[in-house]
Amino acid sequence: SRGRTMLLSLLHIGLAAPCRTRPPTMQASGLEAERNKATARRGVMERSFLQPGTALVALEQKRAANPIGFGAKAAAAQVKKKKKTRTKGSRARPLSALATELKASGVVRIDGALSPALVEELREFVDAERVQATADVKAGRCDQKARFADLVLLDKRCDLLLPLHGPPIAALQELLGEGSVLGPLLQEVVGEAGVLQELACLTSEPGSAQQPLHPDTPWTPIPSAYTAFIALQDVDVEMGPTLYLPGTQTKEAHTSFFGGDLSLGNAGVSGVRRPPIPEEFLRSREVKLGLLKAGDLALYNQQTLHCGSANESRDKVRRQFYISMKNPLAQSKLCASLRPAFRNKLTLGAMKDELAALNGRRTRVDEGGGRGLFGKLDEVDALEVRDTEGAVQIRFGDEGSQLGSEYEII
Known about the structure:
The protein is of the alpha+beta class.
């Protein structure tokens, strides 16, 4: 019948929807609501074919300090435009245990990446920042895209873009600074020329639906980006942990997942895409769950198939602070959960240098009287916020001020 045909069409659109979609600025239309229901149905159906799963387990990082690995080596050679030379009998530097595991499985766990005190402070900061950002957008003081990222199945979920001041700076220090485990690992896989692609917090509230499986980026010979999800509270099964399918970052896995057509995994492909659910492929895959303790993280290759599980708890909110680093050789057009003022402005090397200059502090004044790299970018970001009369408002943590006349408002 005509009604059945329309329902099937909506289901196909929902099944084909990419992992990210535009954030609704008003109540969803009937068509969009039906598409979201179809997307959620696909997620539930896919989960029914998967194994129950076991917890992602941490490995020990056995090597540190300035490594160059499988992604970073190619990036450094391209960015610096140096000729590749090798003496007779020389060999590539071996990968660390974590980088080896990441290359093989597409996801690794690092325990205790953030200290308990900072986790608590960051969680409170995120909640307050969400309230402020929501108020700014609602009052017309700020564009929604400057504070919230696109996200599939947005109901009961929030993807908040974070500033470069306060607890996020302290978190970057612990994650990437001297003595960290994540910093050297990222240097192995993207190199110092790797670019900050995301700095945000994903919140999943009770009632949020099961997402369909997806890669964040399509398969390419060189992985495009890596994301670190850091738990801001203990995560149990009821709270809907992130679900990973290890080993699915490969061309073969993507080909199987998308029914033999790799183009279906490219978010840039236009038109309605209708990939079938690969039941046998899903049944055969190992499943790992991000059952993290507060401060633990999971780092994954964005080509790895994963999804957010349904939060079936009564009153537990799951918050994931996260950062992503893009390989400078990335061929794919990537989503950026990052405030516009920060995009393509921060390399891993520059961030490490700035964190070293901060030396444990959250702000600094450079020789020219400026506020350092992070502070300068945060000032630019503050230009996004205006009061109801059009004057620019600056917010740096608990401080508030207005810019002088030397800043032109465009």
